[in-house]
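Backbones bend. Our protein:
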Amino acid sequence: MKFHNLLIKWYLQNKRDLPWRKTVNPYHIWLSEIMLQQTRVAQGMPYFFSFTEEFPTVFDLANADEQKVLKLWQGLGYYSRARNLHKTAQYIANDLNGVFPATYNDLLKLKGVGEYTAAAIASFSYNEAVPVVDGNVFRVLSRYFDIESDIALPATKKEFTTLAKELMPKNNPAIFNQAIMEFGALQCVPKNPNCYVCVFNISCLALQKKKVDFLPVKSKKLKITNRFFNYLILEDVLVNTLIQKRTSKGIWHNLYEFPLVETDEIVDFDFISKTIQDGILSSYTVKSIEECSYATVIHKLSHQHLHIQFWKIKIDGIIPNGVNYSDLKTFPFPIAIYNFIEKEEICR
């Protein structure tokens, strides 16, 4: 039996019931693909339902305020995806009259849409015979065909794309793409796959050669940067606090946070006290400083580990444009800060 026949047969028997598989609407498929970039299906699904309920069409998303989009995205991470999503919705609504591009090459021109996402939309919505190649596909094909090419190299991406296109049935590319991704997600998993119940266990070269645990080959290691954030939680006589918008490029762009002191290492009370006295809060009279040791957290991003400490600082007087604690949760925050706010709310 041909590879694609066996794969599709397995898929039809084992596929998960996912909402974006029940439609060819490019808006819904685009939303799901952007949300599932570097995100597990179980985590992304509630966001998919929230977005499609709040923004039923691309016009609704385009007309929304960015802050509302970021707030709804809160906790999903990689916030540049949400900003690109919003800008692309505006482009499709305003420049393309709400009609998504219908070909792979034209989809690639959209902001935030790469080769994988363009291939997914083109095949799922328009049945274009273009293969999707992601981590799941690399893993399945490298193991089945015993391919040791380094998947960190651009040339390897072309090699696997060519192979996937050769395997793909031209009359039904959508189901092949869905099947190979699902097979990698459920059966041919990264660690400890159950090869003895696999439909390919007779023909898989990696299993025959006892190389399943060594494939795919990926040489490039991601360098992790450690950063140290100290958030100052001000509280004035009205029990209002101070927040600010992150406008510089980088992580959490356009999200809100408390006043921040970034340091080179974890710091103690004396350092924060001296920093405040030396002018960072010179316009306020500080009454007390307290470290919220219970809230200290290491927030892990793909390329950065953020060591976050929170410091409560009570001040005399009134904070101009201060925000009441009851209103804080209406702003879009990084999830690490939002979790702190929720803890504080419970304690009040």
Q: What stands out?
A: The chain has two domains: 3-214, 225-347. The longest helix spans residues 80-95. Residues 225-347 form a domain with the Nucleoside Triphosphate Pyrophosphohydrolase fold (CATH 3.90.79.10). The mean pLDDT is 91.
